[in-house]
Amino acid sequence: MMEEVKEVTSTLSVDIQSIKVTEVVKDGDTLTFLIESEKLSGTGVYHVDRTYDDFEWLQQHLFSQEEVSGIQGVIFPPLPVKAQVNASAKVIKQLGILGLGEWQAYCKAMETFVRQIAAHSILGKNNAVEIFLTSSDPPGRQRVRKNIFNRLSQAMEGMRKEGHKDVDEFFQTERDHNLVFTGCAKTAAERFLDVVQTEQKIAVACGHFSTALRLCVEQGEDPDKLDFSKVCVKLSEVFDSIQKNVTSVAENNVSTLGLGLDLESRYQEAEKEMLYRRTCKLVELETTRRNAEKAKPVKKAAMEEVKKAAETEFDHISGVAKEEIARLQAARVKMLQQALVQWCEKQLLTAKESADQFNQHLQAFRGMA
Amino acid sequence: MAASSDRIPPPLPATEEPGAATPDMADGDSDEGEDIFVNNSVPVAVSRGVSQPDNVNEQTPDLFGEEEAGSTTAKSNGVHSDDDNDLFAEADVELNTPGGSAPKEPSSSSGLRPASSFTTSPAALQPTSLEQMEEDEAEDSFDVDVAVTNPEKVGDGMGAYVAYKVSTRTSLAMFRNKTFSVRRRFSDFLGLYEKLSVKQSLHGFIIPPPPEKSVVGMTKVKVGMDDPSSVEFVERRRGALERYLQRVVSHPSLLQDPDVREFLEREELPRAVSTQALSGAGFLKMINKASDAVNKMTIKMNESDTWFEDKFQEMENEEQQLRKLQAVVDSLVNHRKELCGSTAVFAKSMAILGNSEDNTALSRALSQLAEVEDKMEQLHQEQAASDFFIFAELLADYIRLIGAMRGCFDHRVRAWQRWQESQSTLQKKRESEAKLLWANKPDKLQQAKEEITEWESRVTQYEKDFDRIGMTVRKEVLRFEKEKAKDFKSQIMKYLDAMLQSQQRIVKFWEAFLPEAEAIA
């Protein structure tokens, strides 16, 4: 069926920047994503089709890399919630801006996910990535072995440990900040979604008005009635323009700032999860220390071993975490800058085009009078 | 006059030359001044006389002397059919110039004029002078500008009301000054409408309806005029009152009504009391009730002129279409308001995000973003107001106007019914005369003869009335169509202008923001 995933690090054979999710195909209830990537050797392009389960497979593989030291300090690129045809209200809410329209934004988000993984200094080396991008067989819908990041159990233990005081000021600050920021980012993304959805409603209403106006057109030769009919037709054209304008504005919103805020929000969550893992390790570490202290001489040596191992692991995790945090900070600023600039440029263009169109309509009306 | 009910209505240029003549028939105030008297048929002349020309200095030929009085019937409308005797009791319209020949017809026994002068052949007309009058009228036509401004709350508590400043600017001689203003309250406007309805609708004129009463709206205002919904309510009402007045003064016949002049000029108006009918949906209810009453009358109108039937149907269709449009516009306005709200909330969330942000340049950019969004919200607000005040109110006005039009059609039907009834009364009188002849009672016979003469005059008069109302209604309908196209056009241009300016401001906002976004290191 599919190749054995060797736990061997490998270098990716494709150009990361060329990775694209070109299309999504609806097959009954399933969504299939077509992914393209250029071979580094310059000899061609890989085309693969993947469903959400395949993406999850990839993620699980990465989660389960126990042998990689400090892996728990990695901020894992966040995978969007599973998209479904005819999704339930709950899923739609979770999807947020990604759930709009015909999955264009969602595809972009999936594409970003793959790129982030491929570009990651640790994650990108996992063979699973190569397989995901290049294997003509889907990596498989089989259940991967249970990973260390079983979210369910974490959530259950969760709340008590989250507030556990840190031993490192850097991390304490980072945790505090992240807590606040995660909330803000999520809220901003949600509020932006509200704006976009209202814009879409306006576009629909404009379309209705335009249609209703065309129905007002009278037949017959009465010149005054014709005059009014002409007015109705021209007005319906105006509202077609307005509809186009509002639709453009909404699309621009989604494709730039919308995606940006969504990604920001999910990355903050991902960082939160990482910090939490580290905090859990901290708690574990402190437990081993206590155990070592309290241990009876017979057990003492063993406990010391355990303690040392825990300390080492914790240090590795903290080391990786620091790097990851720095990386994230730089990356998100760049990402948001790009999003804001693109957003501004697109909206500026749309506004100029609309101004032109309205001007034309106005001239046409003046000509009619 | 034959008592048959299937007479052919007098021919009109409109029906005979649908192409060329119709627009000219529309109103004498048209700038074209084309020869609408091509067919020179009497009814056209009749209608010309009815819509009093503004150009009062032209010596109106005697032909119209009687007509003017005839056209200014006061109180009779179809509903009070026993007021026939008072038909010409009051000649209301006064022309302020000596040239105006509007003799005040003293109330004679039945005050009817002989039928002959109206049913004379076209040769009796002096077409040239009529055309002349038309052309002159076209130039001085709408030389009255009115504005309704400065709403101010007067008094306190539940007795408070809003007074509006009504300013007029005119070059017409019939007003005392060239520019003047008075303060009026809402019930004054309703009072004017009541008076006009009673007097003028008998002739088949479309009386523009005023805005409706609103207990909810006014209660809020009485409590305080500061909150946004009160402000919107007052502005909406002010706009509606202004449009109402503008429509009244742009109607050449209504402008001549002394009540209109009094409304515009007089310092203090007596408080109008009988304004209950016009609350909320009351206006349309009233029209519909009147329609029903007409339908229930036993003599059904045998419509020999399909123009009216067709037009009536068109009116109904048009009203339906406008209602649909209105519903869509309402939904659009609501969504725009929603957008204001969500934009404002979004702006706040971005401001908070900006505050929490460590990176300085990013933080500043996010704060700028929040400001841009705030400005957008302001724009959306204005956009919503524009949608509303321009389109929603326009549609509402025209739906009410169509209702008023239906009222005119009803008046015509009632005029027809009155004429039919008079014909059957005449018939009965003739029958009793015959019986009396046979029974040989000379006294009663004399009385019977007198009654027959009287009723013959009435029949003639009612037929004339009916024809005249028909003419007027036709004219009014055509005028309405013209005004409607003009109105919509001008509102749409206003709207487009506002949209254009909006977009240009948006362009400026984005141009200002771009460097901020690019500056993020």
UniProtKB/TrEMBL annotation, chain A:
Pfam families: PX (PF00787)
PX domain: residues covered: 1-140
Alphabetical keyword list: Protein transport, Transport
A Gene Ontology biological process term: protein transport
Keyword hit for Nucleotide-binding: no
PROSITE patterns, A to Z: PX (PS50195)
Assigned protein family: Belongs to the sorting nexin family.
Identification of the protein by name: PX domain-containing protein
Species whose genome carries this gene: Pagothenia borchgrevinki (Bald rockcod)
UniProtKB/TrEMBL annotation, chain B:
GO CC annotation: early endosome membrane; Golgi apparatus; lamellipodium
Comp. bias (Polar residues): 49-60, 70-79, 118-131
GO molecular function: lipid binding
Compositional bias (Acidic residues): 26-35, 83-93, 132-142
Region described as Disordered: 1-142
Residues covered by the PX domain: 142-271
Family the UniProt entry places it in: Belongs to the sorting nexin family.
UniProt-listed Pfam families: PX, Sorting_nexin, Vps5
Membrane topology classification: Peripheral membrane protein
Coiled coil region boundaries: 308-335
Intracellular or extracellular location(s): Cell projection, Lamellipodium; Early endosome membrane; Golgi apparatus, trans-Golgi network membrane
Biased composition (Low complexity): 107-117
Signal peptide: none
Protein name: Sorting nexin-1
Keywords from the named record: Acetylation, Cell projection, Coiled coil, Endosome, Golgi apparatus, Lipid-binding, Membrane, Phosphoprotein, Protein transport, Transport
